[in-house]
Amino acid sequence: MIRVIVTDIEGTTSSISFVHEVLFPYASKHIADFVRAGHGDTPAIREQLDAVAKAAGLPADDIEGLIAVLQSWIAEDRKETALKALQGMLWERGYQQGDFRGHVYPDAAEYLQRWHDRGLRLFVYSSGSVKAQKLIFGYSEAGDLTPFFSGYFDTRIGAKREASSYRNIIDELGVEPQTVLFLSDVEAELEAAEAVGIRTAWLVRDGELPETGRPVMRNFEDVDKLLMQR
Ligand SMILES: CSCCC(=O)C(=O)COP(=O)(O)O
Ligand SMILES: [Mg+2]
Predict the structure, then answer these.
(1) Counting ligands in written order, which one lies closest to the CA of residue 154?
(2) pLDDT tens digits for 77-115?
(3) Per-residue confidence (pLDDT) for residue 123, from 0 to 100
(4) Residue 179 neighbours by CB under 8 Å, 6+ apart
(5) End-to-end Cα separation, the chain, in angstroms
(6) Alpha carbon of 89 to ligand 2 centroid (Å)
(7) What domains are there in the chain, each with its CATH number?
(8) What atom of ligand 1 comes closest to residue 84's alpha carbon?
């Protein structure tokens, strides 16, 4: 019986276009000023810049070089933990100022509430930082959805296509893998979760249904029907 749901964000609870056409361009536009203003006296920013410098093989004081690296990572959608941490800090201002609100599909907002009320424990696992996860759900178009979640995982637990990440999540939650349902739009992530015994559901929000033996879910209502069968 499923007792825990772990959900991806981009392409699952929320549209890919919101992430790629709103959040990433906002980060790209503001990252340079953010880093120039914060690198000297904000330890949380400095810590992430040191990680960027190490990963890129640049001196930690090459601020313009680090900005160029960050811009290129945003453009190529690199799931680098330090970039994701900086993006989360940057987006906080955008959400607080009302520049945008987090996109969450109406069916996702509805069933997150229903599943929570039914006693299921809900968690997020996204490449976006935990801060960014709390922001997209906290400032969502459907209101503050964070009360429905029991916890959040980002790439500090491991990369989303690695089976070991899902083992780490199971260990952290202290549950049996077959009691967990993982939702994602990326088949490689589902395969990694399945490798450690986690149940999965594949969200295909838009476009043609792929030819696969795997059951495909168009929305969270379909996921709920699957839950009822298990
Ligand atoms: C938490 S909202 C920003 C999403 C993000 O930065 C990202 O890389 C999306 O990754 P996901 O694992 O949710 O597909
Ligand atoms: Mg996704």
Answers:
(1) 1
(2) 999 999 999 999 999 999 999 999 999 999 999 999 999
(3) 98
(4) 1, 2, 3, 4
(5) 6
(6) 21
(7) 4-16+102-229 (3.40.50.1000), 19-97 (1.10.720.60)
(8) 6
Give the tens place of pLDDT for each residue, 10-31.
999 999 999 999 999 999 999 9
Residues near ligand 1 with C-beta < 6 Å?
Answer: 8-11, 19, 23, 79, 84, 126-128, 132-133, 136, 160
How far apart, in whole angstroms, are the C-alpha atoms of residue 167 and residue 108? Answer: 25
Contacts of 207 (CB under 8 A, 6+ apart): none
pTM listed for this prediction: 0.95
Distance 16 CA to ligand 2 centre (A): 8
ipTM score above 0.90: yes
Residue 229: its pLDDT value, please?
Answer: 86
Q: Which ligand 1 atom is at minimum distance from the Cα of 77?
A: 8
